[in-house]
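During data preparation, a discrete fold description was generated, as reproduced here:
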Amino acid sequence: MWGALKSDLNEFVSTVAGDTSEALNRMDENFPDGEGKEQLSTAAEERLRRMEMHETFESPLISEDDPEPYKEDVKEFLADFSIDDKTDEIAKLLEENRDTLKLCF
């Protein structure tokens, strides 16, 4: 049972990492390239980057366009997942991956 939950959480983290990477790549396309456009300061760039990240966390896990097997997998995962049971593991992962936190916050 624990192995399945750990596997589910690892899959979730992997998906979020992929989605985050995709969102960051899309945001990079919105920054000026220096050809006649106003250059943004580092602080302004960071502010823009953080504002754009909201879509990653506000998008629903399931959309109408998703295939039915995916929808069922997500519903099953959400039915069994309890964040309270994962507090220690999440704390450990955050401690081990401090550089990731610096990118997000």
